[in-house]
Design goal:
This protein is mainly beta. Among the domains are: 23-66, no CATH class; 91-135, no CATH class; 155-219, no CATH class. The chain has helices spanning 27-32, 155-160, and strands spanning 23-24, 44-47, 52-56, 63-66, 74-77, 88-91, 104-105, 118-119, 137-139, 145-148, 151-153, 167-172, 175-182, 189-196, 202-209, 212-219. A five-stranded antiparallel sheet has the order 12-13-14-15-16, with no helix packed on it.
């Protein structure tokens, strides 16, 4: 193919493209151009009717849309991306990390770093403030407690809310273990209360295999 060397700048004298087939006023003309013998693979054109840019595919028989949206704010995002830096009205795909604040998050995320008005999906670790929590919640910061079926399971609730009279289950080297049975909507639940002989601990555990207690539920303490 012959080439032309012209080491000078052009000065525009016409308010239009240099290539007359670069901008189409309507979609019909753009589609009709697919029969033009001078078309070439990779050719880029504009369609004023759709206000979009297209590229001709390798077979030269289909226009492929290039990009979408207008600016940094989009009304809907359907594809996946590793990082969201802008504001979106609707996010229908999953993202591994949310760095901004959202009113309603309907999909799963591995890490929640900010506060949300409503979280309808499961989260592995909740380190922020949430208004609604529909599953079990363990607070490990200031207060050590668990949330089960609408009830905050603190030490006082377990001491007073049992279904049947607690019984001494075992005496281990440092104290005594009592069985506490509680009524739930599904089936009765059993916790094990450990009272240290020297008074250093009074706690409820979820599991007990003599002489080992595990799955701490709550501990008697006074927080001022």
């Amino acid at each position: 193919m012959a080439s032309l060397l012209f080491p000078l700048q052009f000065e525009r004298q016409y308010s239009g493209p240099l290539d007359q087939d670069q901008v189409f006023t309507n979609t019909s003309d753009r589609l009709t151009y697919l029969t033009n013998p001078l078309r070439y693979a990779g050719q880029i054109v504009s369609d004023l009717q759709t206000q979009k840019i297209y590229q001709l595919n390798t077979a030269k028989d289909t226009w492929i849309e290039i990009g979408s949206g207008s600016g940094s704010t989009d009304t809907e995002v359907r594809s996946l991306t590793s990082n969201w830096n802008s504001t979106y009205s609707t996010v229908s795909s999953l993202s591994s990390n949310w760095d901004s604040t959202y009113t309603n998050v309907q999909s799963n995320s591995a890490n929640w770093q900010t506060a949300y008005a409503y979280v309808s999906a499961n989260s592995v670790n909740l380190t922020a403030t949430n208004i609604f929590v529909t599953n079990d919640l363990t607070v490990t910061d200031t207060v050590s407690a668990k949330y089960f079926q609408g009830t905050l399971i603190d030490w006082m609730t377990l001491v007073r809310g049992y279904k049947t009279t607690p019984t001494l289950l075992a005496t281990i080297g440092t104290g005594e273990v009592y069985t506490y049975v509680y009524a739930t909507t599904a089936s009765d639940r059993t916790y094990y209360r450990y009272i240290a002989t020297n008074g250093s601990e009074d706690s409820f555990y979820g599991n007990f295999t003599n002489p080992t207690l595990s799955n701490l539920i709550t501990t008697k303490k006074i927080i001022l």
